[in-house]
Amino acid sequence: MTGAPPTTGVHHFSPTVSDVEASAGWYARVFDLDRLPGEARHHGDEDGGYAVLLIDRRTGLLIGLHHHHGHHGGPFDERRAGLDHIAWGVRDRADLDAWAGWLDDLGVAHSGVIDKVARSYSAIVFRDPDGIQLELFHRDG
């Protein structure tokens, strides 16, 4: 075999959050997601916590917001080993303007559209209730 076997893209994103219900409401509102019924127990640690599952019915992307009974607390910090950020792609540069308006309407603080002409991309940067950096990203060409 030459090269890695194929994938179909990102299936789900699963951050650990400090308040699973508050985060579920925020992610559902910001990304227009549907909450799946029930809770998903952690694989290999079924008694240690659970995830609330949200789905984007347009793309099939799942977001599993994890609650751990032994959560150590403290704010998210992308400078520690682990997640730095996650970015959602958008089809057109104009979609970023629409997203900026949507985030404004929801009262979600964001960077505004950042155009990096020399690198041929544009993005909006914002953070979830736990401070996890999220991006909306469009690459030209």
From TrEMBL:
SUPFAM superfamilies: Glyoxalase/Bleomycin resistance protein/Dihydroxybiphenyl dioxygenase (SSF54593). Residues 9-139 form the VOC domain. InterPro entries: Glyas_Bleomycin-R_OHBP_Dase (IPR029068), Glyas_Fos-R_dOase_dom (IPR004360), VOC_core (IPR037523). Signal peptide: none annotated. PROSITE patterns: VOC. This is VOC family protein. It comes from Pseudonocardia petroleophila.
